[in-house]
Write a structure and sequence with these properties.
heterotrimer; B: mainly alpha; ABC transporter involved in vitamin B12 uptake, BtuC; 0% strand; C: alpha/beta; 6-stranded mixed sheet; 24% strand; globular
């Protein structure tokens, strides 16, 4: 009984959306995840129908200030449906139940992988821009990012480690690893849990830490352990290292600065 | 016996300074003083505090299964500490952390020892403790879910199982006074606990009324176990295992078990922490296993054996 | 000198003792008898000073053995005896050795109390009482659950203590023990003293308290309610 109802509703929706072919400029876009939130705000803020709640959290979002004035939607299929979006953006492994439901109901859902290198960032930004119809704007953003990266000093062979909460160190294949390389440092860590003692046994020339959140936890307080005071450090807004986006170039610039 | 325990402590203390993720042997000064020394001192303090608390609780409740963790006192202590820590009270006033732990432990101990006065059977006491422990753990998880920092909930295992890794010397300095004070208090209760072993009426007739002894046990345990849980999380089973290990060797008089339990508890926890570090060196682990995992691996089978032995 | 004057005690809404006057004498074994619930244990506790709101007495001079005294742990007989020194704040070995000998458990000194027979446990507990070297001994049913020989042995020890100058008050159910070993028999019934004197002369009143009377044939019969 309810199955038939759903199929009827899906058909109605499909007819309604038939006029909108993906590839042409979309007008109402919903994003379900932080990384797609940031890209959407960067590239096409005028097309936003709803962002995920994390977009407003300054501890995680590079666009928190802008997102405060933009509409927010909870990542449930029902809430998204009510907004009648033309396009839904999500990451491959997040909100998967909502994504599956929305696909069943005939919505166009685009899953974007989270790029971990600057080459991937360029490629994904261009691809999303094509879908949203904002190629010119994207080109400008990419150009600005490349200009920032080009101005950074060449590799000097100094070792750095990006230390994350709980004592994990970013490995070479992570976004943070790519940022270190762009900033002209050699990543002294292999990734995974490092722990303070192993870090201090072979201390790097520079320690990169995410900015302390305003609230305490054992994981984030660990980065303030006085044992680390002997190593030169640079803090970077955590949001710049979480998602693969042009903001990562700002992180590289901050790290490379004298 | 005491000399033997002190010798063992000296050996493990030295070993603890020489073993770690950076390798065996004397490490760089910053590692030695800022990482290995704090965890060594904390293992000593917490082990001693929990050991003597277990011995005192067993004497006071006349029950070999009594233990601050099993009876929920460590759980209520951890709950107090979590509230003080994640809502920034400890950040603005560091002593708030051990104080909150002591307050939580005090409430738990008072509730439990008050209940013990009305429920003389062993089974109902242990049940009350399990109930208190479960309630405290549930509230703890709830508090962590509400905490403002998103990493809070992932730290549930620390608060339930405990650990001494990555603590600072200033945190040791916060934990040391209440743990030492509580331990000193409990060590002086030997006569009262001995008198209690003949029953409450006899103890009163010997000039040592039960109420006074119980209150002091509650206070000492609140100080020692409360501050321990606030800094090192809910390490369990030390207070249970240690006195029962010592009884066959030292006799069953409660007073005779107090100091040896403190020393053996310190020894046990130091050894467990060493094992944790050796595990990290020898196995490809994702993170350091919590200390409470090792004490539980030792303590849980011990508890089963003890229960069977008592049942016979 | 210990004793109570016009003592009334309420426990749990029930009047357990009603206007009781009782002063035990030194060099005497005073037996307290009466039916269950008559208030004997409460009277003993009042004499000892451990009831709430009674004046505290010097624990070095009084020793109390409650009903069914047990040790919570597997202490040795010697360790139990040493607990008697707690009021004196010492672990003097001489009084303890004397107490063990007096109670006849010196040979069992190193044995765990939870591995002994009922009579031996009782005597070990008595050793604790003796170790205090008290002037007053208050014992609540020390002969309960013991066979006649063990019971007689306990009573003989108490007689010896009285002969040595102590004040001994003992709660008994077995009237024959009182007849044989007590100098004075006090009968308690429903919170009141109904008889007090030499055991033989008090016997009819004691029996009446238990609902028994003695006929001309010398045999007990049940009294009408």
């Amino acid at each position: 009984m309810s199955g038939a109802w759903l199929r009827a509703a899906a058909l109605a929706l499909a007819l309604l959306l038939a006029g909108w072919v993906p590839g042409e400029a979309a007008r109402r876009v919903v994003s379900l995840d932080l990384c797609t939130d940031q890209m959407l705000v960067l590239l096409a803020p005028q097309e936003i129908a709803g962002l995920s709640p994390l977009a407003r959290d300054p501890a995680f979002s590079a666009v928190a200030r802008q997102a405060a004035h933009l509409p927010m939607v909870r990542p449930s299929a029902e809430a998204v449906l009510r907004l009648h979006p033309d396009l839904v953006l999500a990451e491959p492994y997040a909100a998967s139940l909502a994504v599956a439901a929305l696909r069943t109901l005939g919505l166009h859902v685009l899953t974007l992988p989270d790029p971990q290198t600057f080459a991937a960032i360029r490629a994904e930004t261009a691809r999303l821009a094509h879908v949203l119809g904002v190629e010119t704007r994207a080109a400008a953003v990419i150009a600005a990012m490349d200009a920032t990266l080009a101005g950074l000093p060449r590799a000097a062979g100094r070792r750095a480690i990006v230390l994350e909460p709980h004592g994990f160190a970013a490995g070479p294949h992570s976004l943070a690893g790519a940022v270190l390389r762009a900033a002209g440092y050699r990543n002294a860590a292999r990734g995974g849990w490092l722990g303070l003692e192993r870090l201090l046994a072979h201390p790097p020339d520079l320690l990169v830490l995410p900015e302390a959140p305003g609230t305490p936890s054992l994981a984030t307080d660990l980065l303030e352990n006085p044992a680390l005071d002997t190593i030169p450090r640079r803090t970077v807004p955590a949001a710049w290292l979480i998602c693969g986006s042009p903001f990562a170039a700002l992180a590289a610039a901050r790290i490379a600065a004298r | 016996m005491i000399r033997l325990l002190l010798l063992g402590l000296a050996v493990l203390f030295a070993a603890s300074l020489l073993v770690g993720a950076a390798g065996l042997g004397v490490p760089a000064p910053v590692i030695l003083w800022q990482l290995r020394l704090p965890r060594t001192l904390l293992a000593l303090l917490v082990g001693a505090g929990l050991g003597v608390s277990g011995a005192a609780l067993q004497g006071a409740l006349r029950n070999p299964l009594a233990d601050p963790g099993l009876l929920g006192i460590s759980g209520t202590a951890a709950l107090g500490a979590v509230i003080a820590f994640y809502w920034g009270l400890a950040a603005s006033y560091p002593p708030a952390l051990p104080l909150a732990g002591m307050l939580g432990a005090g409430i738990g101990a008072a509730a439990l020892l008050g209940f013990a006065g009305r429920a003389p059977t062993s089974a109902s006491l242990i049940l009350a403790g399990i109930g208190l422990s479960a309630a405290a753990a549930a509230l703890l998880a709830f508090a962590l879910a509400l905490a403002p920092n998103p990493y809070a909930l992932s730290e549930l295992t620390f608060w339930l199982l405990g650990g001494v890794a990555d603590r600072t010397l200033s945190e040791c300095a916060l934990a040391a006074p209440p743990i030492l004070l509580g331990t000193a208090l409990l060590l002086r209760l030997g006569t009262g606990l001995d008198a209690l072993s003949l029953g409450e009426e006899t103890a009163a007739s010997l000039g040592l009324p039960t109420g006074r002894t119980m209150r002091r046990v509650a206070l000492g345990t609140a100080l020692a176990a409360g501050a321990s849980a606030a800094i090192a999380g809910g390490v369990g089973f030390v207070g249970l295992v240690v006195p029962n290990l010592l009884r066959p060797r030292l006799g069953e008089r409660p007073a005779a078990l107090l100091l040896p339990s403190a020393l053996t508890g310190a020894l046990l926890l130091l050894a467990a922490d060493l094992l944790v570090r050796i595990a990290v060196l020898a196995l490809p682990l994702n993170a350091e296993p919590p200390l409470g995992v090792l004490t539980a691996l030792l303590g849980a089978p011990f508890l089963v054996l003890l229960a069977r032995h008592l049942g016979r | 000198m210990i004793g109570v004057r016009n003592l009334s005690v309420e426990l749990g809404g029930r009047r357990v003792l009603d206007g009781v006057d009782f002063t035990p004498e030194p060099r005497q074994v005073t037996a307290l008898a009466g039916p269950n619930g008559a208030g004997k244990s409460t009277l003993l506790k009042a004499l000892c000073g451990i009831l709430p709101r009674t004046s505290k007495l010097d624990p070095r001079r009084i020793a109390y053995l409650p009903q069914g005294a047990r040790a919570a742990w597997g202490l040795t007989v010697e360790e139990v005896a040493f607990l008697g020194r707690i009021p004196h704040g010492d672990r003097a070995p001489a009084p303890v050795a004397r107490a063990l000998a007096q109670a006849g458990v010196a040979a069992l000194a190193r044995h765990r109390i939870d591995r002994l027979s009922g009579g031996e446990v009782r005597r070990a507990m008595l050793a604790r009482v003796f170790a205090t070297e008290p002037e007053v001994l208050l014992l609540d049913e020390p002969t309960a659950d013991l066979d006649p020989r063990a019971a007689f042995a306990i009573m003989r020890l108490l007689r010896e203590a009285a002969a040595a100058g102590r004040t001994v008050v003992v709660v008994l159910h077995a009237i024959e023990l009182a007849l044989r070993y007590a100098d004075r028999l006090v009968v308690l019934d429903r919170g009141r003293i109904t008889a007090d004197g030499a055991p033989l002369s008090v016997l009819p009143a004691a029996a009446a308290a238990f609902g028994l009377g003695f006929g001309d044939d010398g045999l007990p019969h049940l009294l009408p309610d």
